[in-house]
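Re: that chain you flagged

S.,

Sorry for the slow reply, it's been a week of failed gels. I finally had a moment to sit down with the sequence you sent. For the record, here it is as I used it:
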Amino acid sequence: MPAKPKTIAATTDVTQLVADAAAASSAQAQKLIEDGTSQARIVLEKGMEQAQKTAADMTKAAEEAAAFSRGNVEAFTKAAQLYFTGVQDLGRQVVATMQGLSDHTLEGVKAMSSARSLKDVADLQASLARTAFEKSMADATKLQEAAMKVAEASFAPISARVSVAVEKMARPIAA
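Prediction finished late last night. Pasting the structure tokens below so you have them in one place:
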């Protein structure tokens, strides 16, 4: 009968060893779970910070793009407004030029109708033709200069926006 107590003692020792090993394994498993959870939380927090920063950067870029586009629309609107106003002014100048030529022609016809000789008519006609030609050339030069001013003025807002775009494009390259 003495063997039985030894078996009970051995079983108790084995049970104790198994219980101790299970407790140690459980503690180790609990520590691994806690460490894994802690690391996962750190990774998630960093991911959320990065996502928030990316979202803020994208929002800022979208706002800048919207502001830039709004500036482009304003520049094209201003250019169109300047162009149409300029074209109206040119139209008025053309009408005034034509009216001036018509008035000059009527004065010439009146002068020729009161001429006393064929030579006077020929002289008047030559004088009127020369004056009309000179006036037409001067008026054409004025109209050409006015047209160039309209083109320059109406293109100025667009040119300014191109400059802004070039500056924006050059910024990242310089940075």
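What I noticed first: Residues 3-113 form the longest helix (111 residues).

Talk soon,
D.
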